[in-house]
Design brief:
Blueprint (H helix, E strand, L loop, with lengths): L1 H21 L5 H7 L3 H12 L19 H10 L10 H18 L3 H10 L1 H9 L16 H20 L7
Amino acid sequence: MVAVVAILFTVCAVCGAALLRAYPTTYRETARLWHDDWRLVLSVIKAESGFDADATSNAGACGLMQVLPSTAAFIAQRNGIEGYDLYRAEDNIRLGCLYLRYLEERFSDRTTVLAAYNAGEGTVRQWLKNADYSADGVRLFCIPYSETERYVKKIEKYYWNYRKIYLTNDGK
């Protein structure tokens, strides 16, 4: 019986360590500074760049949260921010979080916010006007871009795992 318990403890420790490595909290405090839900921010970072601060997409999105330079310029101007570097983790997270909050002010549903983060605000507004994708003009019941649909599902999975792994008493 002791051997079985020891084996179970070892397996749990190994699995737990693997989960913690798969779902790092490296930028948790920076995320908390700029967004109410650090788990959502880390889920976006995991999906967008895999925590690679030097990541650049084929579309030109940069850094941890894969912020497009045009989006960064818009958000920076809107918030009175000057002198930022999209490859600097703190700047990227700040601008990415401010963009997430901007989208959250415009869309009340998290799925819609995430779809807009990926496909663009204008694209999602068009989807919401289309009865094939939205019944109420607020929520999407269908995401017509398969890449965006996979993106949203991936972030929701990561978010659920972050919430499950990092149970805290911080009320968030």
